[in-house]
Design brief:
The protein has about 110 residues and is an alpha/beta fold. It contains four helices and seven strands. The strands form two sheets. A five-stranded mixed beta sheet has the order 1-2-4-6-7. A two-stranded parallel sheet has the order 3-5. Helix 1 runs parallel beside helix 2.
């Protein structure tokens, strides 16, 4: 599971560098995300702009990652591709997460 992580002030930006988050990679995704965000700044932005497909296992892994964060920390999503955005809306996960059209929008919103 490939991800890149960078910090901008009090924001941790995690970019998923995989085309799919599905059953075969969901556990690894959750574990890598937990490791990458441990001790990171309180605001975490998950950039999904390179992800073309997500299934229920992938959704579950993202929800689990959110629940693993301490209560004072937040997980926001950015850059959802059309197919991934559709899955989040159909499952109403768009009401659970704050979703931004682009990474830049997400970063700007956290700095306000």
């Amino acid at each position: 599971m490939e991800m890149s992580v960078r910090t901008e002030g009090d924001i941790c930006i995690v970019t998923v560098q995989e085309p799919r988050i599905d059953a075969p990679v969901a556990v690894a995704f959750k574990d890598v995300l937990r490791t990458q965000t441990a001790g990171a700044p309180p605001q975490v932005i998950l950039n999904l702009s390179e992800v073309d497909f997500i299934d229920s296992s992938g959704l579950g892994a993202i929800v689990a990652a959110m629940k693993n964060l301490a209560p004072e920390r937040t997980l926001h999503l950015a850059g959802l591709t059309p197919m991934v955005d559709k899955v989040f809306r159909l499952t109403r996960m768009d009401s659970v997460f704050q979703i931004f059209p682009t990474l830049e929008d997400a970063v700007d919103a956290q700095r306000v």
